[in-house]
Amino acid sequence: MAGYKGHIAAALLGCGLLYLFPFWTPLPWPGKAACVAIAVFFGLWPDVDTKSKGQYLFLLAILMVNLVLLYRHEYKRAAYLGLLVILPLLSRHRGWTHSWTAMILIPGGLYLAAAHYRGGHPADFLPYFLAALLGYASHLVVDRF
Ligand SMILES: [Zn+2]
């Protein structure tokens, strides 16, 4: 069982596979940095169902987003976000957050939401989606050993 440092290292290695895709070279450096951050985040995220560094970072990120939503008086969105945060906390460790289905559905849902709400061409978000997939997959692979 790898700790958070092992999962971060694996996510960075997984993120290195992005060099194989043709979109990587023309991607500006802030986009590349975002891809690395996304891969590391999703490399830690599956352990959100247990007391871990991933859970701490996830809850900290959600707290920041929720504070922004409350500041903007977007109470309905803040409430839905709060409901979604509870779901992984209710499951057993290495339950659904450690499934290949979740690896597709969670980054995929975020990809579709980003493409819908941010506008632009869906292909613009593909590097970030792949970074999330590679980070998530690295966690699942490392946990298998
Ligand atoms: Zn895990």
Cα-based radius of gyration, to the nearest Å: 15 Å
Q: What is the domain total for the residues? A: 1
Strand percentage, roughly? Answer: under 5%
Unreliable residue runs: none
Number of β-strand runs: 0
Q: Give the names of the bound compounds.
A: zinc ion
Query: What would you call the shape?
Result: globular
Average pLDDT taken over every residue? 89
Biggest pleated sheet? none
- Give me the strand/helix succession: HHHHHH
Present the secondary structure layout.
Elements: H1 4-16, H2 29-44, H3 53-71, H4 75-90, H5 100-118, H6 126-144
Helix pairs in contact: 1-2, 1-6, 2-6, 3-4, 5-6
The protein binds zinc ion (ZN).
Zinc ion (ZN) binds next to α6.
Please provide a written account of the structure.
By secondary structure, the chain is mostly helical. 70% of the residues lie in helices and 0% in strands. The protein contains six helices and no strands. It is globular. The model has no long low-confidence stretch (mean pLDDT 89). The site of zinc ion has 5 residues, from helix 6.
Question: In a nutshell, what does this entry contain?
Answer:
With 145 residues, the protein is mostly helical.
Task: Provide tags for this entry.
single chain, 145 residues, mainly alpha, 6 helices, globular, binds zinc ion
